[in-house]
Amino acid sequence: MPSATEPNPSNPSAGLLHSKGWQIAMIGLGTATAQLDTSVNIAFPAITRGFELSIGDIQWVVICYVLTYASLLLALGRIGDTIGHAVVYRAGLICSAVALLLVSCAPSYGAMLVFRCLQGIGAALVMSCGVALVTSLYGEERRSRALGIYTMMMALGWMLGPLLGGALTAIWDWPAVFWFRIPIAIAALLLLRGLPIAPPRLTSERFDIPSGIALALGLVTMLMAINRIREFSAVWLGLLSVVAFAGFAFRQSRAERPIIAMDVLKLPGFTLLNLVSVLANLAAFSVWLLVPYYLARMPGYTLTEGGAILAAGAAGAALAAPIGGRLTGRLFSSERLAIAGAAIIGAGLLLLGAWTAQTPTALRVTGLIVQGIGLGLFQLAYSDIVTATLPLTERGVAGSLALLTRTLGTVTAASVFFLVFEILQATHGFFEAFQQTFQLAAVLAFVAAGLLMLAPRKIGKA
Questions:
Q1: CB 3.0–4.6 Å: which of 95, 222, 249, 262 could bond 122 by disulfide?
Q2: CB-based contact 427:300 (threshold 8 Å)
Q3: Helices marked H in 105-232 — which ranges?
């Protein structure tokens, strides 16, 4: 009798629904409900007009979502390791569909922000277990290939977001960037079949709720402190974050089954690797922050054309990730691939730092693709090292940790690069400030590559 993950030869349609390729495609489809949130950025002007907001108020559309999403990732990854990744993933699809409907119908801006928090919960449920599900389908011997495919699927979501967002907003206004993802979530939920279940020995474990609360509080206050780096309130938020993380560490040191074992941070090069991930993503996210403003100043680009140029970086990541997944372990170690990825990010950012008003479109696209290739390789290699370092029974935590460091990098970039750019623009003008900011971002990427060169040859191996 065929098992839950094997096709049934007497039922071709059932065989398709249970095939590995179909399952991965549906995981990718479900993951798109979160990755396509890049479509929201291009709808910011329409949201501002719709609720009669000031430009500064629009940041809370991002803050409410990101704070909720980032603060829950590790905790939900542990819950997935405990009760089953497929259960958590499907719950995330349901939560996302409901939240997207509510956001698209929000009667006021305050209600919209509340529903964005609910959307953040749904995204965290989905993303915390995506890596665990994909790697479980391939097995440990093909883990790098599985991660390459998963990284590619995420990059495709980032790429399609600006393209779809511009077109949908032009036709149906801002609610469309939310409600168009509802059928995607429902389709993935209905068509996802035969995913591996959690090992029976894990299902009796209890989740450490106090640790989860302390972790969420620490992450929220830290991200808020970063966001308010120009204000004195950042000091108090930072202190509160330190206290919350100290409480989390104290609780974890005494927990029978911690959310993340503190001992893993003592493994050779592992803490450095995670700091480098924050730094590399900090540098790379400068593209999403500043390139849209550059394109808006260039005559001759429609909204759709500008979105297509911006999406070139994500296209580079989608191209590089599966290739890197096949090369890892054959020609390159994950550690060497991470170094190369960070260096290529820096090279791409240097190309962006050379843009002028006269730069041909082909060269603009080339710089974005190079940066995207580096990011795709780095994220693949980083995810592979993290998942190899943590035990197999903590695969949800491993995937969540990879996403968390990426989020920390992007949130930090939003505060730091905007601040640097504004200071430079006040004295040098837009284009020179644009160039210098990207040159700084390139230096950070090269520093990330240099730090990894100082790490042990096999990170995380005692």
A1: 95
A2: no
A3: 109-138, 143-172, 176-179, 182-191, 209-227
C-beta of residue 268 within 8 angstroms of C-beta of residue 456: yes
Q: Which tokens go with 454? A: 């100082």
pTM score, whole prediction: 0.81
Exposed e or buried b per residue across 103-119, where buried means at least 16 C-beta atoms within 10 angstroms of its C-beta: bbebeebeebbebbebb
d(Cα 102, Cα 48) in Å, to the nearest integer?
18
Class of residue 149 by CB neighbours under 10 A (exposed 0-12, middle 13-18, buried 19+) = buried
Packing angle, helices 85-104 and 59-83, rounded to 10: 160
In 3D space, the residue among 360, 371, 376 whose CA is nearest the CA of residue 310 turns out to be 371
DSSP labels, 4-71 = TTS--TT-HHHHHHHSHHHHHHHHHHHHHHHHTTHHHHTTHHHHHHHTT--GGGGHHHHHHHHHHHHH
> Chunked in runs of 10, what are the mean pLDDT values of the chain (462 residues)?
43 56 83 87 81 75 84 86 88 95 94 94 91 80 80 84 82 92 92 63 61 84 80 88 88 75 74 90 86 80 78 88 80 86 96 90 93 93 85 76 81 79 87 92 95 79 58
Q: What are phi and psi of 460, to 5 degrees?
A: 85, 0
User: In 3-state terms, the chain is what percent helix, strand and coil (to 5)?
Assistant: 80, 0, 20
Residue partners of 120: CB distance under 8 A and separation at least 6: 64, 65, 66, 67, 68, 69, 72
In the 8-state DSSP scheme, what is residue 196?
P
Question: Among 172, 168, 150, which residue's Cα sits nearest to residue 34?
Answer: 150
Q: Which of 453, 62, 448, 154 lies closest to 283 in space, CA to CA?
A: 448
DSSP assignment string, 204-236: T----HHHHHHHHHHHHHHHHHHHTTTSTHHHH
Contact 310, 295 (CB under 8 A): yes
Q: Are 154 and 35 in contact (CB under 8 A)?
A: yes
Q: Please give the structure tokens belonging to residue 159.
A: 């790429």
Alpha-carbon span 46 to 48, nearest angstrom: 5
Token digits of residue 382? 């980083």
Cα 242 from Cα 218, distance rounded (Å): 7
Query: How far is the CA of 429 from the CAs of 85, 295, 420, 426, in angstroms?
Result: 50, 16, 13, 6
Cα separation, 265 vs 220, in Å, equals 21
Return d(Cα 207, Cα 262) in angstroms, integer.
17
**Residue 193 in contact with residue 86, Cβ under 8 Å?**
no
Residue 412 contacts residue 305 (beta carbons within 8 Å): no
Q: What does the radius of gyration of the chain's CA atoms come to, in whole angstroms?
A: 21
